[in-house]
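Q: Protein A?
A:
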Amino acid sequence: MSGVWSDLSPSECPCGSGTSYAECCGRLHRGAAAETAEQLMRSRYAAFAVGDEAYLFRTWHPRTRPDSVTLPAGRTWTGLVVQRTDAGGPGDESGVVEFEAHYTFAGQPGIQHEVSTFERRRGVWVYVDARS
């Protein structure tokens, strides 16, 4: 499933779910817990798209997160394609999500490809790390 943030109505979620931001990733940004690793990954993508650095920091495993999170200026996130998930379901303790995050920077399109690892920490999904 993919979505293009710049082409969506202001109420549609940038993660491409086809639902409203308020019902989808917005509720996670406001404090609800993700049920799966993919849901957390989508909400983190949406956080990049809407500029929610605090959410990105909060959902990053303390073992691997930087001291602070600062989003790059001038990058506009334009779409998300989830390629695969391994585990990461409601009953799992870890999971992997491979995806492509599309963006524009300085008027040029780009794609960030990642295979991201997620773990449950105290019952809550967190992002651990990624490889390109």
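Q: Protein B?
A:
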Amino acid sequence: MRTIQESGRSGYAALAMEETCVFKSVDGTRLEADVYWPASGGSGITLLWIHGGALIAGTRKEIPRDVIDWLVARGFTVALADYRLAPETNILGISQDIQDAYAWLRRDGPTRFGVNTDRIVLVGQSAGGYLALALAAAADPRPAAVVSLYGYGRINAAWSNSLPNSSVHLPRLGRWKDRLLSKRIPSRFKPRARIYYSGLVRYSGGWTAKVVGGACNPADDEALRRFNPEDTITPEFPPTLLVHGDGDSDVPMEESLRLDRVLGARGVPHELMIVRNRRHGFDLRGLRDDAVAPCLTRMIEFLKLHSI
């Protein structure tokens, strides 16, 4: 455990705490979470933050540190959790990892980090938004709220099995294609290689199959519905904030528009925040992007509005 000095000004204590914990060991893999919390005077709200990466790439370490500091300075506890990745692990194992991270935070969080188990909010980016929505639909007890940053509610949409024109993968496809696709399982890939691999999988139309693995027939849309959060939302679903950039061509804004309609039809308290002129992953630049602080501020307002 380390004590760290916060960089921002706030009405809370100047000191915050930081600890890295193993929340699960499975098949020889130690899954870790980084937890940051105010030394005193916190808001009582804990954010379980789930990274993106098409379920094939990504790590908890990509969440910008200035965003974490901004939140802790305002009294939030922030837990960043890793999970196993596809195709080595299919959607069932990935979802179980997130469920176990949530269970660990509820079990150990109160004594270790002062977590109020009634005020845990799930936050996820892209694939992390998908996982946050899926966990909120399945968890018992449910989280207090969900924040989906350019997430999606379907695992079998047509866009997810094609490569967007603006993708970062395109310039390097030729260089990486033979090297990546010659390996059946990318276990030893470096992080950047996994990103290119996820693009190639999309380009070849095989993303859903890689992610589903042996969980079901990836060509059976009816069987896939149980993995689609938008098909499992009920009126008891937690209050949900959807955030999406209108320039996103990796995960089309239509995914959040669809979720907005589904949540409304089910009577779930929710809000859709459209961020003008922002692409996929705009928040990964942290507070250097002048749209990020307003998004975080709106998240706080949304949580207050719903008494969280």
